[in-house]
Specification:
Helix 4 crosses helix 7. The chain is α/β, with parallel strands linked by helices. Helix content is 39%, strand content 13%. A hairpin with an 8-residue loop joins strand 1 and strand 2. The longest helix is centred in the last third of the chain and has 22 residues.
Length: 224
């Protein structure tokens, strides 16, 4: 699709009768270019990277995603997330993944590492958006694209909801692969979060090289 064709698609379209609460339908501004949604997953985990995704959806596919009952990835079953992620990947104008490693999380702190992961995702885009909608209340630092933060954005913006799904599916797939290397933590069940069995495994075996040592449950001094 030519560059001029990409920029000709409006951000706002006529809202479907069943739902007009999404940002993309309730806000009709002077924005005539693409809007991107940015979200992260894994911020509260004890293991593995924090992962961000950015998604740019064309206006004409938004009613289809509403009909598919898209929402915050945490509210969806695994099968629904996987189905929606495949749909989003085919409908999106562009989407990318960025992440920050456990070492970066420990060195920078989790907030700064999260913003770094978001920035990396946006910087990979081949299509330049006119506006980035960022989940939460923290803007991405040193991003040369206008941005707007949205608290609980994955429930307010279709682009952010799509990004939350793409980030969640990508990270869960990564953790499942890593889980084969560290079976004692049952990562396939907890996805790196601090479940009771995960915490017990940390007490018994100590942290792995991919645990976040700046997080208190991973700071095991004496395992005897």
């Amino acid at each position: 699709m030519a560059e001029t064709e990409l920029k000709s698609t409006p951000v706002c379209v006529n809202p479907p009768s069943t739902n007009s609460s999404w940002w993309e339908f309730s806000t009709c501004s002077d924005i005539s270019g693409w809007v991107a949604g940015v979200d992260e997953v894994g911020r509260g985990c004890l293991f593995g990277p924090v992962v961000a995704a950015v998604v740019i959806l064309p206006a004409e596919v938004l009613p289809e995603l509403i009909a598919e009952k898209i929402t915050d990835s945490k509210k969806l079953s695994v099968s629904r997330r996987n189905k929606l992620s495949k749909l989003i990947s085919t409908l999106a104008i562009d989407w990318k993944i960025g992440y920050a490693s456990t070492a970066e999380i420990d060195n920078l702190n989790i907030l700064q590492a999260t913003l770094l992961a978001m920035k990396r995702a946006v910087m990979k885009l081949k299509v330049s958006p006119e506006l980035c909608l960022v989940d939460g209340n923290q803007a991405i630092k040193e991003l040369n694209i206008p941005q707007q933060t949205l608290v609980q954005g994955d429930q307010k913006s279709l682009n952010i909801a799509a990004a939350s799904i793409m980030a969640k599916v990508w990270r869960d797939d990564l953790i499942l692969r890593l889980g084969a290397k560290y079976p004692m933590y049952e990562l396939e069940r907890n996805k790196g979060y601090g479940s009771q069995k995960h915490l017990l495994a940390l007490q018994q075996h100590g942290p792995s090289p991919l645990h976040r040592l700046s997080f208190r449950p991973c700071q095991i001094v004496d395992r005897k």
